[in-house]
Amino acid sequence: MAASFLSSPFSHPLRRFTLHHLSNKPVSSLFLCSAAKMNGHVYRVPALDEEEMASVAGKTFERYALPSSAKRNGKGTAILWFRNDLRVLDNDALYRAWSSSDTLLPVYCLDPRLFQTTHYFAFPKTGALRGAFLMECLADLRKNLMRRGLNLLIRSGKPEDILPSLAKDFGAHTVLAHKETCSEELQVERLVDQGLKGVGNGTKLEFIWGSTMYHKDDLPFDVLDLPDVYTQFRKSVEAKCRIRSSTRIPISLGPTPSVDNWGDVPTLSQLGTELQEVTRGMRFVGGESAGVGRVFEYFWKKDLLKVYKETRNGMLGPDYSTKFSPWLAFGCISPRFIYEEVQRYESERVANNSTYWVLFELIWRDYFRFLSIKCGNSLFHLGGPRNVQGEWSQDKKLFESWRDGKTGYPIIDANMKELSTTGFMSNRGRQIVCSFLVRDMGLDWRMGAEWFETCLLDYDPCSNYGNWTYGAGVGNDPREDRYFSIPKQAQNYDPEGEYVAFWVQQLRRLPKEKRHWPGRLMYMDTVVPLKHGHGGGGGNAQTSKSGGFRGNHSGRRSRHNGP
Ligand SMILES: Cc1cc2nc3c(=O)[nH]c(=O)nc-3n(C[C@H](O)[C@H](O)[C@H](O)COP(=O)(O)OP(=O)(O)OC[C@H]3O[C@@H](n4cnc5c(N)ncnc54)[C@H](O)[C@@H]3O)c2cc1C
Ligand SMILES: Nc1ncnc2c1ncn2[C@@H]1O[C@H](COP(=O)(O)OP(=O)(O)OP(=O)(O)O)[C@@H](O)[C@H]1O
């Protein structure tokens, strides 16, 4: 690991990871979102109440259930190791574990490594909001498994310690899990394998592919020959592959072996994290029921799928885009399930460019996941998959102004405040703040990527580092090299200044045309001048001593055909 000049974590309110800040709130209290707040500035996503969410989930489970005549023909005990697949619907590992056994033990290991620090810059590996989302996912998974005659064993510790010991105690013939692709997860897979071999009772470890819309085995090329250009990949899979139907799961999955203590869903304080309440913006509800509820809400209840392509570049509020990403990242919903719901919508309501475009975006998600196999660790390295050489700054002050939303550019500051307050930022916002960090501030892109890793509810190593390497111009496709002009982006995507005024309160009293360029007296100095475009409309643009990126690429303007 590279020595980090930032070996001590930056001071920031999100870094509340000490055991003496204990909060005793039970996980159930995390589900509460008062009506008063919803009417004010917090939007629950999905906006369904608990009753409607349970009813929608129940109906969806029935729609995607295997007929009750389906029989399992396995013997003995199988262990199902849940990872980033916290769902019942369309869960191939769950189906395999059920059908290959007569007793099934579902397990989740709360790996302490998830709550340590990021690789280079020692930020919290999992921020408080994502930690809370995960706990909600576990509570909901347990509930949904119990409805089917199972339960979820929750243990704190490393999978390589927990799983071999369970395999021994329960005499399991197989441990089944979904396959991951990045080196941290692959290392855990290797350790679990070694641990199981060490036990010596012949327990097999079986991995199943299940995170993408197109199955890895159905690709028309070896994954190591993945095209470097997204469009080639998309055209090739669209022409030559079929998306498999989602796997139907029986209504009853029991029995489980008898277990003395199934373990509680931990409180955040037990994870060494303090509860962070969402005080503004979107408050996402974790779990499969909420994920299925959001699909129902966005497609069927609000009928928004048919306008997705026109609205998807928005930044304010829950409905300009699907907001499926947090549930996809934890595997609470599968892309194949979304695909089937799109098809159903197209046959029952309307098929148009918008209904297709959600699939187009999900193909980007697939692409980055397959790319992580092809690129390996180069995805995380400074030079990226193309090993681009360049000089980058790691100026701490500049970085902190970006992180804390104090750059003097309202559109950057608003997006960064949204990220730390809610754990979410729009795709448009992510592209703008990424370009600003890399091109205008000249900072090492990994600082931004690791801060996203801390904060994002939908953090996924493949999509996060894949998009950052593209944004930094070090991705595998040399043509993806973009500069986002701040004035243009502000004008095109927030023309009335509503978004910036929502997140930067003092801008609210300014006339709309001034909100993006308030100047130092009404707002603050800008921390760096812009490389292209005007540098602050009255603000005092200072020159950064840390310098910009001086790599061997051109910094061309965005071509807007990327993700
Ligand atoms: C710098 C940067 C970092 C990002 N980090 C992540 C990340 O860690 N996790 C993550 O899920 N997405 C990441 N994205 C991609 C994208 O911004 C989010 O997926 C999207 O904003 C989520 O909102 P949504 O579900 O409403 O998206 P929608 O616009 O409704 O799209 C539907 C789905 O398509 C997929 N998708 C859309 N755009 C992309 C994309 N560019 N790359 C991969 N998948 C995409 C997502 O699964 C998304 O849920 C990142 C983008 C950038 C520019
Ligand atoms: N799931 C993941 N999330 C975040 N980062 C990941 C994940 N999986 C792998 N990585 C990153 O992959 C990289 C591992 O690469 P590598 O083994 O080359 O590291 P290293 O040799 O320690 O790197 P360097 O020599 O640059 O310090 C690390 O940056 C690690 O954090």
UniProtKB/TrEMBL annotation:
PROSITE patterns reported for this sequence: PHR_CRY_ALPHA_BETA
Family note: Belongs to the DNA photolyase class-1 family.
Protein name: Cryptochrome DASH
Residues the record lists as binding FAD: 308, 321-325, 361-368, 458-460
Described function: May have a photoreceptor function.
Superkingdom of the source species: Eukaryota
Keywords assigned by UniProt, alphabetized: Chromophore, FAD, Flavoprotein
Residue numbers marked as site, Electron transfer via tryptophanyl radical: 392, 445, 468
Organism listed in the record: Raphanus sativus (Radish)
Biased composition (Basic residues): 553-563
GO molecular function list: deoxyribodipyrimidine photo-lyase activity; DNA binding; FAD binding
